[in-house]
Every structure is written in C-alpha cells, then in structure tokens.
Amino acid sequence: MIDLHCHLLPGIDDGATDLENALALARVAWDDGITTLACTPHIYPGLYDNTAEIIHDGVARLQDELAKADISLTLVAGADAQLTPNMLEQLKTGRIPTLAGSRYFLFEPPHHVAPPRMADVIFELLAAGYVPIITHPERLTWIEDRYATICEVFEAGAWIQLTGGSVTGLFGKRAQYWSERMLDEGRVHIVASDGHNLRRRRPVLSEARERVADRLGQQAALDMVSVRPQGVILDHSPTDMPALTKARRPVEQPARRRWFGGFR
C-alpha cells in the first residue's frame, strides 16, 4: 500500500515529535503493509511555516535514518497545504511542494469555517494544470451546509481523500457517515492515514482498505490505497487512472440532522 498523507517528519508540525517517535510511526506503517509513504507536514501560514526546502531536507534526513534502523519504507515529499488566496503562486514558485513533484498536491480546507471562495481557488488551480486532492472533507465541521460545494469541485476535477480512521469509525459516526456516503456515491479517489501519532492517529490503512472492499469490492479498495497513489507518484494523468466505483445498492439519504462535536 501507499500512504499519501502522513505527518511523519519529526518536530515540524503536530505530527511526530522527535526522531524516535518518527521511527516508531514508520515501523507501524511498514508492519501494516505500507511500502511507500508521503511525508506531508502542514503548511499553515503563521502556525506551521514549512516550505518545500524544509520538507525535502527533512525527507532526505529521515530516509537515511530509516535505512540505519533497517526500516525499508520509501519516503516521498509533499505537504498538507492550507487554503490561501495565493496558493497558485506558491505552487508555481515551488514554496508548496506537490506530491513527489507531480501535478497532484494535498489541499486542506479550513476545518471549522467554510471558505467563501474555495471553489474559485480550486477552479483556478485546475485550470493551471494542478490537481488538488481535498484532504479529509468528511471531517470538516461545515460539510453538512456546503456538501454541494464539495460535489461541485469534484465534478470539475478535484480529487477527494478520506482518512482511514473515518472509514473505520475512529473519528465517530458523523465522519463515518460522510465517508460511507462519498464512497457509495463514487466520489472518493484515495484513502490515506493522515497519521500523526501512536495513539488515535496511527499511520495504518489495512483496516480501512477492508472496509472499502466490503462496500465497493477488492479492486476499488486497492485502487484507493495502491493503484491511484502509485499513479500520483508517477504523475499519471487523471484520465489514465482507474475509474471510480459506485455502490451497487442505493445510497441512503437520511433526514437532515445537526451534528455536534469538534473536528478532532
């Protein structure tokens, strides 16, 4: 399996705290069957001011440490980039790294406030040749009010990435409901761990892969954790990727309800 979203680099965001912790997380990923992992620390202006240079240097150093520790995990660089008005400029100048140097990159919307121009920014990015992968929309607190926007940018060509823990129920019934709905509607391209720590947010994918397989079949699950992620790393065109799979059964549409609880 290939994990395209993990906060493995030590000491630069809210992920791995130090090298020892990063190596422990890497072992967890390897033992779960992950062979390639994208180090994607937050780029969040004013909070995590990471740059492509910082991230690439960190990946090179950690890859050396993995070799010393006899952990055969292959690392690639990326970032979990928070939405900003000048995102396109930062991608063009290389300040925001794409995934393994491809046209694909992780696009993180604000967690608690629906951004008024998110669709416009995504359309601009798509027109420039980038493919934003929207990270964990199922966990956004505003998805009930703006699900139509998620669907709109999906139809325009943006990709959707679910967190494995949302699929398995680790983040509660709300995130699991939206995960299952988007899976059943055929709107999910990738499942990734969004691994942060050894407690609730471990870098694992095998259980989520099996949950997806139960809903959509084994091949659809492999496409989300192996085939499409490999295509991203190789910078394959979206048109050359496997087609998305919808559920055979009709998607349940429960009455609208208000969800409570925080993002994490």
TrEMBL record:
Its EC number is 3.1.3.48. It comes from the Bacteria. It catalyses: O-phospho-L-tyrosyl-[protein] + H2O = L-tyrosyl-[protein] + phosphate. Keywords: Hydrolase. Transmembrane segments: none annotated. Belongs to the metallo-dependent hydrolases superfamily. CpsB/CapC family. This is protein-tyrosine-phosphatase. It comes from Brevundimonas albigilva. The lineage of its organism: Bacteria, Pseudomonadati, Pseudomonadota, Alphaproteobacteria, Caulobacterales.
